[in-house]
């Protein structure tokens, strides 16, 4: 009876990073869709951005590969033994862009609070209509 569960646990453990990425993305999506506080929406957006970055880093992972640094005696054209550095460089750029997006969003939220005195979306919309 216990043998059945070992296969399920082994399957879940082998794809644990994918499950974590999916859960993080869904938490971020839930926060953006359901929460009414603008600050909570920004935090959810950040969680979603982290999930997307982790997704691309996970896709770029190659088992049994080493860093893309040429060592003395390395074979020319043996690209199968190296990890592609391009996705990692692009994700560094994505991290910088996400920081800029969060910074601009926080500045906008501060201005919304100064103008309308609230960060709750329905309250802000109600005060905008007046």
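Sequence proposed for the structure above (130 residues):
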């Amino acid at each position: 009876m216990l043998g059945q569960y070992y296969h399920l646990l082994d399957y879940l453990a082998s794809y644990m990073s994918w499950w974590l990425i999916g859960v993080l993305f869904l938490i971020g999506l839930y926060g953006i869709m359901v929460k009414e506080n603008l600050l909570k929406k920004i935090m959810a957006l950040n969680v979603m951005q982290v999930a997307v970055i982790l997704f691309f880093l996970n896709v770029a992972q190659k088992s049994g590969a080493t860093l893309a640094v040429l060592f003395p005696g390395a074979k020319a054209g043996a690209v199968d033994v190296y990890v592609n550095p391009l996705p990692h460089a692009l994700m560094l750029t994505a991290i910088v862009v996400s920081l800029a997006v969060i910074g601009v969003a926080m500045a906008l939220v501060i201005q919304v609070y100064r103008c309308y005195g609230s960060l709750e979306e329905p309250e802000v919309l109600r005060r905008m209509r007046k």
